[in-house]
Fold:
Amino acid sequence: MKASRLYLLARAAQGFAFALFWTITLYFQDTVVHLDAFQLVLLGSVAEVTIFCFEIPTGVVADLVSRKLSVVLGFLIVGAGFVIQPIGATWPILVIGMIGWGLGETFLSGAFEAWITDELPFEDNPPTATEIFLRASQANIAGYLVGIWVSIVLATINLRLPLIVSGCAFLLIGVVLAVVMTEKGFHRAADQERMTWARFRQTLTTGLIIAHSKPLLLDALWVVFFIGLASEALDRLWNKHVTSFGLPKFAGMNELYWFAIIASGGMLSALLLTTFIRHKGLETDGGKVIKLITVLLAGLILITLIFGLAGNFYVAAAGIIGARMIRRTIEPLTTAWVNDHAEPEVRATMLSIKGQAHGLGETLGGPLLGAVAKLTTVSAALVGSAICNIPALLASLRGTRRRG
Structure:
């Protein structure tokens, strides 16, 4: 099989398997394992810390040993981390499972993209790397949308079933890739190309110096940091808040289908919004990008407040769909902001710093807002999430004024 076709199929299968797990896992953790709000948020922070700590050590495998091996290990470890959670169904097992997911993600991060980039030159009339990445993103979304509904169908049989099938699917993908992946274009990365802890510290220092010398870049980093600070509570507590009102039942429809409607609604509305933005060409104008982020952040704050203070299921469901739509749309726009204002020779560095800023925000904000939920209410934590986005809005407004 051609490497490009294998990559597209694998990315579609990856999206499908992820949807099987994530569509129902928060409901499972809440209703079966009976985690409290702080534990729910802490699980997300555990994964983020794992990714941060192992991103560089696991990169050695892809850089020096084999990108194929790194990808296969990534799928196998994610699969093991997912499959043990519904089988064990205890707090310690969930923690171990989330560590497994985070560790597996570090093996996959960058390695799969690097592998296909190396393999494309060995195909007849190969697509460009940009084209294959765009098609892979579309395949991943398509697989995810199918997986959402399959997850709910399986969950109506048994809540553990979609989580177990998801873990098995990741394990199967890893085994299949181990058999069929080629590796014709791999070459060991030179020392100067590898990311080590020393080089990471140097990159971080260099990036921060550059950001301080270019205020528009610093504004972008503050925006991303505070979005991360606010995001973990919303991502991990929305399910608990929505189900607190009870899930409406209609004739012949299992109440769990509401999770598929919410998940699909958030993804499809984001696709429509980003398509509209691209159709208008707004993402190509640096000044318009910052203004658009400002408007979206204002909308995110308002919608998150409405969601957190909602008094019934339908308002809450509409709120989380709207919040997800905006969050998915803002992410590529902040990347465009950094791309537009970073010099070409430091662009990769600044994009790396952007990712670290978001991860740091998630790591700090998760336990903080989780503690608010535990000591007060989930609603209070969600209002806190909205408040955490206010500094992001202020930084975006400052960027708008600087750009003029």
User: Anything to note?
Assistant: The radius of gyration is 21 Å. The mean pLDDT is 91.
